[in-house]
Amino acid sequence: MSAALRELAMGYVSVAVLLTVGFGLLRAALALMGRLGLPLSARQTLRAGRATLTLALLLPPACMALRGLVPTGPLFTFERSVVRLTPRLPEPAWSPRPGAPTPRPAGTPSSFPVGTALTLLLGTAAAVHCARQLRQHLRLIHRLESLPRVRQVGRVAVVLCDSEGTAFSTWFPRRAPHPSAWVAVPPSLLEDAQGLRLTVLHELQHHRQRDTMLAYVRLALGALFFWNPVVRAFGRWLATCQELACDEALVSGGKARPQDYARCLLEAALRATHAPPLPAGVTGMAHPTKRRIEMLFQPRPSRPHRTAALVAAVALTLTPLALWAQSATRGRAVTLAEAQALAQASQREQDIQVVVDEQVVEKLNQLVNTPKGRAFMKKAMDNLGTHREALTRTLRARQLPEGLLAVAMIESAVTNMPETSTQPSLAPGMRGAGVWMFIPSTARQYGLRVDAQVDERLDVARETEAASALFSDLYGRYKDWRLALAAYNQGEKKVDRVLSETGVRDTSELARAGHLNDYTSTVQAGLLILRNPHLLD
């Protein structure tokens, strides 16, 4: 599955989780407030429902952006310090071919992309369902255009239905002077002036509340999450809240007396008994009549702070859930036991042994489960797949382990870059040049020319010879590959001083105590990925 498709699936799952949990939490909170004698009015309930819906839709992308900017765990220092040279050194003579595919070992069967197929299947089903609903809605708009108009004020047209049934209202974006909002009323209301007036006022209130516009959101959610009954129940509940809010607005605003309005609701309910269902994307009066009439004669509390408190409580609950859902769909963290099992299963004879501890696991998860880490390691694996043989040839000639390729991955993503390059590196300390990131003093010590005219660190063959010689010297000096790696990054003098002062040769213990940096752990994590590339799938 591609990165973009994975991100899309991750957001889809997160929204589904938040819609389900948010709706349940909201209903439970409203029920509790009612039992405690702190009920909300119908309009406040509608605002709380819309706020919960907005949170469920916006929190996942917000959490994705936040995670990309501020990861949840301590990240490696991604950018290394840039050594500013007065004369600009020559550009590299060798660079990996962009986008070259990683060769697949012979006989390895290609796995069926189950995740991609499932994502495409859900997306296709949702698109078909949404297109079908939209087509029905467009047919309704064309039908409304042909119906006789009772009155038109601005962009709002009141029309007579072509059959007896319940009144409804709808909206569709259109250019002036064509109407974009409609109120459809049954012909029988022409004989009841008061009923016609109250019905039109009710449907116009839907337009004022933007219910007819937000109906498209409910239509889209119903199509996208057709498999989730909770999302459908959320949409039906919001539709009922819209009706109650309209009733409350008309009665509390003095536009209708409760007795007259109750009679209008009863007559609408009788007409809706044998009427066909309303088309998708419209609002109508076919909702629980008994509850609506009872609400008309009940006191309507007005406590704005209650709505704000309820929405804040829902937000405080959904925000950590959104972060968790986003992390869970992005990829579960590798545990210490799993990393140790990976290291043991992928260990090769005569190669560097990966000693897995908490620091190595932390670095491994940063490389696998953070956007920067994954992008860097994918680039390193692609480049290494193209140029692996050219680098390992010299290592084999020196009888050095192939696992040292992880050093080139961490240092430069196997990119032959000049010292002035701004491309990222995962290695701390002074920035070097070339695939192996030699600093000038070490490069000259091993026979490479580095001056304003020539920089042989950018000659990959010569630099790899020098790096192989350096690795041989360091391992011969310390007889331990982890100490050799620490000296490769921090220098022999630093490692010698630490060993002399502490008497400890365990790099994990020295790093935990702050005597050495985390370079060795990062290289070992990179070596685990080198031996287990499926971690980046």
Walk me through this protein's architecture:
This protein is mainly alpha-helical. Helix content is 60%, strand content 4%. It contains 19 helices and 5 strands. The chain has helices spanning 3-35, 42-69, 114-146, 193-208, 211-224, 229-252, 258-272, 289-296, 304-330, 336-346, 358-369, 371-397, 405-412, 440-445, 460-478, 481-490, 492-502, 507-512, 519-531, and strands at residues 149-153, 156-160, 168-171, 181-185, 283-284. The chain has a 5-stranded mixed beta sheet. A hairpin with a 2-residue loop joins β1 and β2 (156-160).
Roughly how many Å apart are the termini?
8 Å
Number of helices: 19
Write down the overall geometry. elongated
- Calculate Rg over CA atoms: 34 Å
Side by side, the strands of the main sheet go 1-2-4-3-5
Classify the beta-strand content into a percent band: under 5%
Low-confidence spans: 70-93, 95-111
Number of strands: 5
Q: What is the share of helical residues?
A: 55-70%
Structural class: mainly alpha
Major β-sheet profile: 5 strands, mixed
Short description:
Helices cover 60% and strands 4% of the residues. It contains 19 helices and five strands.
Attribute tags:
five-stranded mixed β-sheet; 60% helix; elongated; mainly alpha; 5 strands; 537 residues
Walk me through the topology.
Elements: H1 3-35, H2 42-69, H3 114-146, E1 149-153, E2 156-160, E3 168-171, E4 181-185, H4 193-208, H5 211-224, H6 229-252, H7 258-272, E5 283-284, H8 289-296, H9 304-330, H10 336-346, H11 358-369, H12 371-397, H13 405-412, H14 440-445, H15 460-478, H16 481-490, H17 492-502, H18 507-512, H19 519-531
Parallel strand pairs: 2-4
Antiparallel strand pairs: 1-2, 3-4, 3-5
